[in-house]
Amino acid sequence: MTTQLETVTKPKGYVTNSNLTLFAVATALFPRVLIPLKIPSVINFLHFAMIPLACGSTLLNSRSKDPKQVALSKQLLGGLFFFLIVVFASALLNDAGVVNAVLSYLLLAEPFILILTIVSLPMAPDNYERFRTWILQCAMINLIFAYVQKYVFRLDRLIGLEDNVKGIFIGQGAGHVIGGSVAMTFAVYYFVTAKSKPFWFRVAIVLACFNHLIISDTKQVLLSFIAAYVLLYLINVKDIRKTLMYLVLGVIAGSAFLWAIYNIEYLEPYTVWIRPEIYGPDGEATRLKFATFRIAVGHYHSPLNWLLGLGPGHTVGRLGGWMLYAYWNLLGPLGATMHIASAEVWMAVGASWLGDQSSLFSPLFGWAGIWGDLGILGIAAYFYLAFIVWQKVCVIDLSKYLMLTVFVFGLIFSQLEEPGYTLFVATMIGLGWQDYQNNVRNKLAQQ
C-alpha cells in the first residue's frame, strides 16, 4: 500500500496555503517588533484575521481523501462551533459587546484553528522541513533579541530591570514571560527533534534558552515546564518500581536545587516563592490567587451565570484584564463593553504586598479568565477542544508535553490567551503530527 501527496503546478504569483499559514503565524510573533518603526498598533490585531483566513483557504482547497484526517477536521470544526455558541450565549446573557465575543473567541480558539490548519495542509517531507526551519528561525530570532537586549543594550539596568528583556515581544507588559516561554518551548522541541545535529549543539541551544529565563527573570516558566514533565510522567506511568526510583531522584534533585537557590547568587530570584506562611488557607498568596473567584461570584445576577460566566471580556482574561484598557480608543467605538469585576480584581492586586512580586501569585490567570468570562460551559467547551487535540493530534509524547506546559501556564498567568506563545506551541504540535504522518507514509511505501 502506498500513500502519496498530490503536487500541483501553481501559476506564478500563487500564494500556497503553507506560505499563507507561515505568514499568519508571523503576524502573531513579530508585530511588536514593527511598532517601534512607526507601524500603527492595530497591526497587533492582524493575526485575528490571518489565522482564520489561512484555515479557511486550506480547508476550501483541501483534497485530502484520508478518512482519519477528514474525521479529525470535522471533530475540530464541531468543537470550534460549540465553543463559538457558548461565547455568544455568554455575551447575550451579560450584554457584552459583539466585539468582546469575537475577540474572546479568537484569543482562546486561535491555537485550535491553527492546529486544524496545519493538520489539513498536504505536507510532503520537503515542505515539512521548510515549514519547520522557518518556525525555528523565528524562535532563534527571539533568543537573539533577548541576548542583545541584555548584553548589548543593557535594558536590565533601566526601570523594570530584567522585565525589559522581552525578546521579540517588545513593549508588551508580560513580554519577558512570553519570550521566555517561547524560548523554552524552542529548546525542548529542538533538543528532541533535531537528531541530525550534534548532541553538544542541542545541549548548547537548551543552555542558551535556559539562560534566557535567568536574564529575563521568568522563573515561573521553568516551574511550568517542570510541573508539565511530572504530569506527563504520571500519565504514562506503568512501572511502579521505576516510578519510586524517579521519585527518589526527584526529591534529591529538588533538595539540590533548594540548596542552590540559597547559595548561588545566580539563582537567588527563585527564593521569592519559598515562604510557607503565605500559602495557608488564609495566607496572602492564597487569598490573592483566588480573588477572581470571590469577586466574580459577587456580581452574578442569574443562576445562568454559573454556566456562562459574566460575559466575554468582563473578568480577568487577556481581553478584560488588559486589552480593553490598552485599546479602548479603538475598541470602544466598535461597541466593546467593560465590567467592574475586572477593575476590582486589579484593585485586589494593588492592595496586596504580593501583587508585584511574581505572576505566580496573580489572580489574572488563564483558567480563572475562562471561568469568569464564560462559566462552566466555557471551561467544558475549551476542554472538549483540548481533548480532541490530545487524543488525535498529540500522537507523540513531545506534543503532549508541550500541551501540558500550556495548561500549567494557565494556572499561573494569561498565557492561554497570549497569541505569540500559544500559536507557537500550536505550530510545534501540528508539526509533530505532520512528522508522524510522514513517517507512517514512508513505512507504508516500503512495504
Q: In this structure, how is the largest beta sheet organized?
A: none
Number of domains: 1
- List unreliable stretches of 5+ residues: 1-9
Reading the helices and strands in chain order gives HHHHHHHHHHHHHHHHHHH
- Which band does the percent of strand residues land in? under 5%
Structural class: mainly alpha
- Please work out how many helical segments DSSP would assign: 19
Shape summary = globular
Look at the structure and give the mean pLDDT. Answer: 87
Distance between the termini: 7 Å
What is the total tally of β strands? 0
Keyword list:
447 residues, mainly alpha, 19 helices
What is the topological layout?
Elements: H1 17-29, H2 31-34, H3 46-60, H4 67-94, H5 98-120, H6 125-151, H7 175-193, H8 199-215, H9 219-236, H10 240-263, H11 284-289, H12 291-297, H13 305-308, H14 318-326, H15 328-331, H16 340-351, H17 366-393, H18 397-409, H19 419-445
Write a structural description.
The protein has 447 residues and is mainly α. It is built from 19 helices and no strands. Helix 6 runs antiparallel to helix 19.
Structure in a nutshell:
The chain is mainly alpha-helical. The chain is 67% helix and 0% strand. It has one domain.
